[in-house]
């Protein structure tokens, strides 16, 4: 890095921090080391700061050696550049592509947040004394670590730790101490069938406080149930997975008339097109963090004095960053054709100083007052790392991603070895025209059917599927590049009502697939399963239905059914994922978990409610 860029790294604007002078002095040495670094250090085995171009020799290869002493050309894979104030990038010396630097610590923290609840519910009861040598060691090991110590009045078994003599019990039933547990099933069913919360209270004859207690209970049970069932996923032998990945936004109602801005959170989901199984549904929100405490910690650690990827709290939206992003948040221009939309999506990403960050707020949005909003790209990186763990047993994986630069970078980073060295994973961009009316969809479908009929007349003997593949191969040969990455896109020749206009680009094309194979993969590209799941969320979960913009609210969104606390959104997404994967069956009388091979039959609501982990 040049002296100029080094000084830029050290010189991001920092606010007055008089209340924390003592803490700042204590951190001066650490701050100097951060400023001298070129890229953030590895954290938890994670280092994603490498070239994201699959065709490049540096793809998946982070810088080696002492990254604080890069200087001579040719001795390093990357050079540090900048896309603007406070946005350091790396430029690959081999292919010339540039990409923003990200905090490995932030990704690791987000990954830990996602895994924490599952690990807690999947683990066995153990000695609760954190200072004890048996803490973390499950009771199933038996003697000489634990001894049975009778039972409680409710009949729950008690244990005694043989190291510290601490006694503890494990609940015999999930509904222990609940007064009206007989109402659980009915309330559970109403909650995932779009009955408003007030109506649930009325029908079940319970108060709001009791209802929210029930939601907490359902959430814990769903977390526990999912953790136990999905612990088998990495060992599940699966021949092919065709995974659609997309995001959906949820608005949180304002609570004060003086400030009528919404908090808008985003959830990323990965759903298998063949089985409908949702492997992950993650919200960019951490309910465990206190905004005031994190701001104090950020000031003390001099986070505002260094670039975002080098911060202690890199993954969370801090107040000053949110305000600055709001001021320069662009208004997207409308585009007519699907090709124009693809081109404008690339242009919008290139215009951003951080192309992977697509969650810049508008003037009508604000940070949550409880918990903290996570930068969307950190949630994406952690999400794909979680998907990698869950799909370890799959022979081949094809990702079909909504056109999103952050999603692309996260997927390619998480599966770099599987993409190039093992050729186990491929990724595609898929762009769908979703705003069409039913009549417009029918016209496009009719036009495609006429073109297909004409092609089959010119090629007698060809089946419908063969004709579609042949038309795809013709279009593949005539593809043209779009955007800075020179991605080549093809319009699918035969749309359907759910995807009336569809364009696809192969992001991991290394030139080693024949045309027939490529045509088959392009024909499989679809976001249908994940879009269907998002539609079901809107239709089944009252507080997650789409809000209505009104002229009187000047573009802001408010609905009486929406959540006032973002924690409730996170809980409802977990509840919905458990019910959809294991309880709700389709026309074939099978649930997504059954089709995937993770369940032998539909799970009843009672099976989740009374699940104890045994």
Structure summary:
This protein is of the alpha+beta class and 614 residues long. It is built from 20 helices and 16 strands. The termini are far apart.
Structure description:
Strands 9-8-7-12-13-16-15-14 form an eight-stranded mixed beta sheet, with helices on both faces. The N terminus is likely disordered. The chain is globular and about 80 Å long. It starts with a helix and ends in a 5-residue tail after the last helix. The chain has 614 residues and is of the alpha+beta class. The chain is built from 20 helices and 16 strands. Helices cover 37% and strands 15% of the residues. Helix 4 packs across helix 7.
Ends distance: 57 Å
Count of separate DSSP helical elements: 20
Instruction: Find the structural class using helix and strand composition.
Output: alpha+beta
Low-confidence stretches: 1-27, 549-554
Helix content: 25-40%
**For the CA atoms, what is the radius of gyration?**
26 Å
- The overall pLDDT average reads 85
Proportion of beta-strand residues: 5-15%
Number of beta strands: 16
Q: Give the biggest sheet.
A: 8 strands, mixed
Strand order of the biggest β-sheet: 9-8-7-12-13-16-15-14
Label the overall shape: globular
């Amino acid at each position: 890095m040049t002296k100029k860029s080094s000084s830029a790294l050290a010189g991001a604007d920092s606010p007055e921090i008089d209340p924390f002078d003592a803490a700042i002095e204590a951190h001066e040495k650490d701050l100097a080391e951060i400023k001298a670094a070129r890229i953030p250090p590895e954290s938890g085995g994670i280092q994603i700061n490498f070239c994201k171009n699959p065709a490049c020799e540096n793809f998946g290869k982070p810088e080696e050696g002492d990254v604080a002493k890069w200087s001579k050309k040719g001795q390093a894979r990357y050079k540090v550049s900048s896309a603007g104030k406070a946005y350091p990038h790396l430029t690959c010396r081999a292919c010339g592509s540039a990409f923003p630097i990200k905090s490995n610590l932030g990704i690791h923290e987000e990954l830990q947040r996602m895994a924490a609840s599952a690990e807690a519910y999947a683990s066995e009861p153990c000695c609760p004394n954190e200072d004890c040598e048996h803490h973390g060691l499950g009771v199933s090991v038996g003697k000489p670590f634990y001894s049975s110590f009778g039972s409680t009045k409710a009949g729950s078994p008690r244990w005694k730790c043989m190291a510290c003599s601490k006694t503890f019990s494990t609940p015999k039933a999930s509904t222990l101490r609940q007064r009206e547990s007989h109402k659980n099933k009915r309330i559970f069913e109403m909650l995932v069938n779009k009955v408003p919360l007030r109506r649930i209270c009325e029908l079940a004859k319970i108060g709001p406080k009791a209802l929210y207690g029930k939601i907490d209970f359902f959430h814990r049970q769903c977390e526990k149930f999912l953790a136990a069932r999905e612990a088998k996923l990495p060992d599940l032998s699966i021949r092919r997975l065709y995974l659609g990945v997309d995001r959906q936004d949820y608005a949180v109602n304002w609570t004060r008339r003086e400030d009528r801005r919404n908090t808008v959170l985003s959830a990323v989901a990965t759903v298998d097109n063949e089985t409908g199984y949702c492997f992950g549904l993650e919200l960019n929100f951490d309910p465990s963090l206190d905004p005031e405490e994190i701001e104090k910690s950020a000031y003390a650690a001099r986070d505002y004095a260094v670039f975002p990827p080098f911060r202690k709290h890199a993954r969370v939206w801090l107040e000053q960053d949110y305000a600055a992003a709001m001021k320069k948040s662009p208004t997207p221009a409308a585009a007519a054709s699907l090709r124009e939309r693809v081109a404008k999506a690339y242009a919008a990403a290139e215009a951003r100083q951080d192309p992977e960050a697509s969650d810049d707020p508008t003037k009508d949005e604000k940070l949550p007052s409880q918990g903290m909003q996570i930068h969307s790209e950190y949630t994406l990186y952690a999400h794909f790392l979680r998907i990698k763990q869950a799909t370890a047993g799959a022979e081949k994986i094809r990702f079909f991603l909504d056109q999103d630069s952050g999603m692309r970078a996260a997927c390619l980073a998480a599966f770099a070895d599987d993409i190039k060295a093992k050729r186990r994973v491929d990724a595609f961009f898929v762009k769908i025209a979703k705003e069409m009316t039913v009549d417009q969809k029918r016209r496009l479908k009719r036009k495609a059917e006429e073109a297909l009929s004409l092609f089959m007349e010119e090629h007698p003997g060809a089946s419908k599927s063969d004709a579609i593949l042949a038309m795809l191969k013709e279009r593949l040969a005539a593809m043209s590049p779009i955007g800075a990455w020179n991605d080549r896109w093809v319009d699918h020749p035969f749309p359907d009502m759910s995807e009336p206009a569809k364009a696809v680009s192969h992001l991991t094309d290394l030139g080693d697939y024949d045309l027939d194979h490529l045509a088959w993969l392009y024909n499989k590209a679809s976001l249908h399963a994940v879009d269907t799941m998002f539609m079901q969320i809107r239709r089944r979960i009252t507080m997650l239905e789409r809000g209505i913009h009104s002229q009187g609210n000047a573009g802001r969104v408010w609905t009486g059914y929406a959540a006032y606390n973002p924690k409730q959104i996170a809980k409802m997404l977990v509840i919905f994922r458990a019910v959809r994967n294991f309880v709700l069956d389709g026309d074939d009388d099978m649930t997504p978990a059954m089709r995937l091979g993770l369940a032998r039959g539909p799970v009843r609501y009672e099976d989740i409610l009374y699940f104890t982990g045994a």
